[in-house]
Every structure is written in C-alpha cells, then in structure tokens.
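go over this:
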Amino acid sequence: MSLRLENIVNEINKLEPSAYYGRVTAVQGLFIEVSGIRSPLTIGDRCNVHTTHKKIVPCELVSFKGDKLLLMPYGSLQGIGPGCRVDVENAAPVIYPHVSWLGRIVNAFGEAIDGKGPLIKGNKPYFIKTSPPPAAFRDRVCGKVDLGVKAVNTFLTICKGQRMGIFAGSGVGKSTLMSMMAKHTSSDVSVIGLIGERGREAKEFVEDVLGKEGLEKSVLVLATSDESPLMRRQAAYVTMAVAEYFRDLNKDVLCMMDSITRFAMAQREISLSVGEPPASKGYTPSVFAELPRLLERAGPGASSGPDACGGTITGLFTVLVDGDDHNEPVADAVRSILDGHIVLDRAIAERNRYPAINILRSISRTMPDCDTPEEFALVSKARKYIAAYEDMAELIRLGAYKSGSNRGVDEAIFYYPKIEEFLSQKKGEKFTLDEGYRLLKEILDTPYTPPNAAKG
C-alpha cells in the first residue's frame, strides 16, 4: 500500500501549474503540422495530440517550419486531423526504473506490456537520452564475464564493462547466439532490448530461451518491426537507461540489443523524413552521430566523482550486415566504436557448425588484459593451428598437399578437426570459463604423431 501511495505522490509532484497547447493545421506524410503553441520548445520535446477518437497520441518535435511545429507520432496517425488539440508535455522524457522490473517486459515508454499489471515506479528519474560517465572518472574494464559459450569464453573472452558486437548476415544465428549468452551469463542482471524484431519472437525468447530462471534476473524492452521509427529508436535508449539504473545499484549488468542495425534504420527514417540529405548508402549523417551517443553509455561506471558506483554495463549488440558485406556503413561505424567484434560466417553455418563464429576474423580487444599468461598462450596456440589450416585448406581439400612437407601444417591438420568440434555447441548446452579452458587444453595436450611415424 505504501508503494502505491508513493507512486501517487510522485505523480502529483510532477504536475505543472500551467499548460501550453495549440492546434493541428495539417497532416503530411509522417508529420503533424501544429501552430498556436507559444511555449519555447526545442527539438526532441514531447507533445500529446488529442484525436477525434478521444485518444491521446504522444509525439516528438522533430523540426520547425517557420512559426509552425512539425511533430512525428509515436503511434498511429489514425484520427488526427486539422483542429485537433495539441498539449505540450512539460516534463523531460524520463523513466522511473525499479528493482521490481526484473522479470517484466516493457515498451519504449517504460510501460508494462506483459499483462502482469502496472509497474512500480522508482524514486529517481532516468533520462532516456543522457551522456555516459565522464571519461576521466570512468573505471577500467576488469574481470571476466562468463557467457556459457565456450568458443566466446576462451577465444574471445569478454570483460566486465566491455562492448562487443555480433556481426552477421540474416539467418546465420546471431539471435540464437545472443539468446544462449542471455540464458547462461554470470552477470547479476540482464537488460535485453529487442529492437524492430518480429512480434512472435518475444514470447519465444521469454519461454524457450530465457525460461523462468533467466527471466527472473532480466528486463526485456520490446519494440516490434510494425511500430513507428520513434518507438524503435526510443526502445534502444530505454534499454540503456534501465541498464544504467541497475549499474548505479552496483550491479554487473549484461545489456543486449538485437539489433543495433534496426536502431540505425529507425534513425534514418526519421532524419530522411525531416529532409536530412542521405550520405553513405542512404544513411544520413545523424545516424553516425547517434550511434556513439548510444553505445558509449555502456561500459564501466564512474570510479570517482559525484556519480561514482561499482557497477558495470557489459554491452552485446547484434549488427545485421547488408548482403554479408561486413564493411557496409553501419557495420563499419559500429566496429570502430566497440571494443571487439564476433563475426558469424555463412560458410561455417552451411557446414552446420554452430555457433558459426569465424575465430580468425573476430577479436576481443580487452582479452589480453583479462587472460592469464597461460590462458593467452593456450588460445594463441589454437589460433595458430586454425590459421595454418585455413591457409592451406584449398590444397588439403584437393589432395595437393603432401604430408610431412611442413610440420606446422601437419600439426594443424591433426588438431584442426578437434578444435572445430570444440567450437561447436548446442543451444541448450552451457560451459563455464574453467570448463572451456580445460577442454581446449586437453585437445592441445594430445600428443602429435608425425605422419611418417604413424605409418611405421
């Protein structure tokens, strides 16, 4: 009862003594043209349009046209026409996260959409759009995150506070890999943003992937592909804001977004609508400005200063590459911002080896600082065998390579099938960090017998 009363008091305190309003003068495409509002508004401010169907449609100010405002709706334009009243929302776009949000599914406004009743609001507002902790005060990444996937835990070790991208074309398994990590992670809390995804996937993700145990320590933020570009973009911001709340509670948070490409597409739709000129492959300059503003919010918390906390946000962001081109504009921009990338290869997936991680094209930039010298040497040795085999793969398949002509290649041929089997993992399997290193060590400790000796 006290929590409900507290929520009521918070809502009363947010009421403004005065209000500004105007009227809709025209609707053009995705825009609502408004005049008559005398309040000093800025880009990004919120307004509410009262439709002829007695509904309220939240909108965002995206442009000015002389003394008129151009709004873009978060919902449908149905029922909006000339003469509809438009109220100015005085409060900045914020959410009020609470620990009770764990196990819940929310939309881009931070509202419950799982049918389990309303959410309890916390006392502290979190701005949907905000800046990351100052670089001078930020802590360093330290300690490993156990993601339960042995290929990632060993070859691409991820540290607390690191930001990693999962790059793949469609149908190669990036969502499946992300779901395995979400289920098996050792992090205190998981905040998962499904941005522009298919609507049917939400229930599948909750019931089949996370399960009851995984959901209890997770918050899902959902914006499906049929929702407006503003909703899809804001879902990414809200995902990060919820993660920041738990980070400030000194939690180690795993923040996952599927996918960052659809965030970029939503921003492109918005900016093209307001007349921003397209640049690289139709993406506007504002897309490449918004990407670092979003992604830099993940990472370690501040170790000193007024916002000091002991929590971290480890970021995992999937990137849908266009036509398997890993150098397309969004993929290239995201890769330059993050601390590493996991590349999923269609050719490996076609061999039915999942997760289809291309070890040689993937990298974790913080891995050398997190691994012990023994672990780093073990992984380096395995990488050497993979590289040696891949260099000679064509000759080996054609039967043109003669055994015994190069000891390094002979060793690679001996160990490569075993390493490939190690990299394979079923969806329901879980391997800890220690188990992964132990299994890899067992493979590389297997005595190598030269081909000639084997014949004798």
Q: What stands out?
A: Residues 18-91 form a domain with the Thrombin, subunit H fold (CATH 2.40.10.170). The chain has a mean pLDDT of 89. The radius of gyration is 25 Å.
